[in-house]
Structures are given as structure tokens and as C-alpha cells.
Amino acid sequence: MKEIIDVELRTRTVDFSKCKTDLLAVGQFSDAKGLDKVSAELNRKLDGAIERLIKLGDFKGKDGTNAIVYGNANIGAKRVLLVGLGERKKSTPDTIRKAAANAANKAVAMKTDTLSLALHRAFGGRFELGTLGQAMAEGTYFGSYRYDEFITESEDGRLDRLGVEVIDSDSAKTKKLNKGLSSGTIIGKAQSYARTLMNRPGNMINPVKLAAAAKEMARGSKSLSCTVFDEKQLAAKGMNGILAVGSGSQNKPRLIVLGYTPAHRVNSKVPTVGLVGKAITFDSGGISIKPAVDMDQMKLDKTGGIAVLGTMKAVAELGLAVRVFGIIPSAENLPSGTSYRPGDIITTFSGKTVEVQNTDAEGRIIMCDGLSYAIKQNCDVIIDIATLTGSCRVALGKYMAGLMGNDEKLIKQLQRAADDSGEKVWPMPSGDEYAEEMKSKIADLKNIGSKWGGACTAAAFLRQFVDDKKWAHLDIAGVELFEKATEFSAEGSSGFGVRLLTSYLMSLVGK
Fold it and tell me: Would you please indicate which residues are annotated as catalytic (active-site) residues?
């Protein structure tokens, strides 16, 4: 298989106009009254080419846009890429993250060897330089990512490597940018790692192979451990939710447990966090089979579990002083003579019983075993993440994830992490009125409610398995996939959740 594009990222102190590069990216706000100092200097040496482009209306600085001005003998860059930043008054660190993604996406499309980023200069002192450095690094990896490992002959001849540098003429500023760049590189690489696993099809990733990938990742880290429970161990522990969902496939289910123990002492006030991610490696719907249209995208039903895997990778490499468990229940949901059926009653790991009314509501059945296991590990805070319901996509579209929970402080913390990471969430209810819909007449619970408020009733179902722990649920159905390429990303998995969860964990210990 072909490797994904290798991105090499660094900082460099160099005069902007003398920087030798294939593509020099600078930012421009749509409401700016004029060019900033860097763009003005480049414009002067390019004989007014940047101003002419703007006056012609060919570039207006709108978010998600770009335009190229070709260099001359007066500057070192072969091309200057003007990247739109939108309105300055609305700018956030995610503005520069998207701008870097835009520039990296363009660089890959143009097959350039080198990209130099001077995007931060347009922001002046609006944000701390380390924050901007981290955001640019994350955006660079996000925008340059391509999933083409199974394409044996590439007509576009894309390059195997992209060299990227964040530049400034002031060495003190370069040093501050570099601090953020280091963290952003770790997070960006972890998200790319996760996107690759998420994008792989069901014949390449099943529960056993996902467990092997988790073990391989843990072997490369002194602070990570990995335990995998096979079908016999799951049966011995009474994890019948995971077993039931995986009963129709010859690829047997697994529970993957990653433990992160930091090298540094953990402050007693920092909670132990359990991250629980749904990893259905392929979801046909089981006996309650899905329509054929777009069923190929059900390879992405493992996104939540792999987001946890990518987060654990980032946390270990960042060396955060917080104890974390990554708990990934994994199964393949297929119809066969051994599949679980509508009408079955399952006794879950918690001891609670669940009546199956639809085998395509399988995520919550494996997740309840994962949540109960997090409680057994004495996690103080439990956050689960899953492509759980189509209803969440109906409610929020493809722009944000649904956020539910039982602790207002935790919800606020995740909202701040969403703002920091650029992975947006929206709070939704999951209270007793929704839980009432999930009660069964012949068991403790049933696995579907009415056709209304499906994201909320699904969260209310999960809520029954967290006892009195602080808990939050992220329904990422709708944001896990780019159906078409955008100005910021190629099509395929978005890797949603890696930046969000890592940002939350960083906030617990202070960046």
C-alpha cells in the first residue's frame, strides 16, 4: 500500500521577501482597509501585483478562498498565495487553522515541494503566537491529507513529501511559534493516523485487525498499555452487548483497552478520564438491514473508536499529566444464521437487560458495555464518542456534533475544547423524558424509542449505564465524513474528535 503524504514541518527565521520557496502563503481579511506590513512589502516588490488583483475583485479575502500572484526577481518565492481569512472581527484561532489547511491543500494540488506560511502576520497581536503556531500545524496536516493508499497508478503524480515551514523575520516570534508548532504537529499527525484507519474498508479493518493496530501503536510508547479481550474473554466477563452485535460475523468482536500512565506526577485535582469510542468496523444493519445506497460509507461506523485511538496517541506523545483510559468496543454488524435478532433480550455487562427491537441500533448496545467497563476502571469522568444516530445529522446537519451529558461543568469544558480545536459541538437534551421512551415492557430497556428525537433518546439510553459518574456523549454522525472535497480537505474521513478530545485533556492540565 502507498504511504500517505509525508509532511515535514518546521519554523525558520527569514526575511519574508527573501524566503526561497515554491509557495509563500500570506493572509488577508475581507474587511481589512489595506495590506498588512508583510503583504505591503511583497506587493511593492511585485510592482503592485497584489493590490491590482484585489482592486480587480479577483480576490476579496473571503473565508475559504485563495489566489496566486507569481513571483519575480525581487522576491525569493516562486509564487505568493493570498489566503482569505474572512472578517477580522469574527476571527478565531480556527481561522488560521482553516487558512493553513487551505494553503496546504493548494500546495498538494499544485504538486509543490515547499510551502512557507506567514499567515500569522495578518493577525497582529490578536492571539498568542504559540496558539497560532499550533493551529497552523494542525491545519497543515489536515489540508495536505489524501487517502489514496490503494491507488496503484496515480495520473496526477502527487508528490510523496511536502516540506512546510512557518516563517518570521523576528527570531523571538519564531521561537514562540515553534512552541505551539510542536504540539500541533503531534496532534496533526495523530489525526492523520486516525483518518487513514477510519478510511480503510471493512476487508482491511475488522475488530481483530483494529486490535492489532492498537497493540502496535502502544508498543511504540513507554506510557501506553494495551489489553485486548477476545470473544472467549468477553463471554467470561458477561459483555454480551459486544458479543451480540458481533455474533453474525466470522470476524469476532473485541474490546480494546488502552491505558495511559504519564511519566510525571498527576495533580490530585486532575480526574481520571475514560474515553469510550464506538468501533463498528462495518455496519450492514444486521437483520434489520440498511438500504444499499451509500452502504459503502458504513466502513466509517468505526470513527468514534478510532478517534479515541488517535487521541491516546496524541496524549502519549504530548506527555500530558493526566490518567486516561481509551476503551474501544469493536464488532462487525452483519446478517447471518448466527446474528442477533429483533426480539432478543441481552444481559449487558452492567447486569441491565436490553430488548432488541432493531439490530441497526447496534452502537448503543456495544457502547453500554464499554461505559460499564469505564466505571470498573474507576474513571472520574467518562466521555463517549460515536457515529450513533442518523437523527443527529437530521438535527444538526454536517456542521457540528451533538453534545449531551449529565454534568454542566463537563459540557462547558467540552464546548471550550470545541472552540479551541475547531471541531464544533452543539448541546442537546437527554433527560428523563427521553429515558422514559427507552423503557421496555419485557426488559429493563429497549434499544430504540419513537421516531422523534432519536439522538436524544439514544443518549438517554447510554446515560443509564454511567451511574453517578460525570459523563458526556458526542454523537458525531454527520461530521465524520467529507462527502466531497472542500477547499480545506480531500473527501473521506474528517478524523473528527481527535483534536476535540485532545484539547479537552490538555485543558485539564494546562497547555
Answer: 290, 364
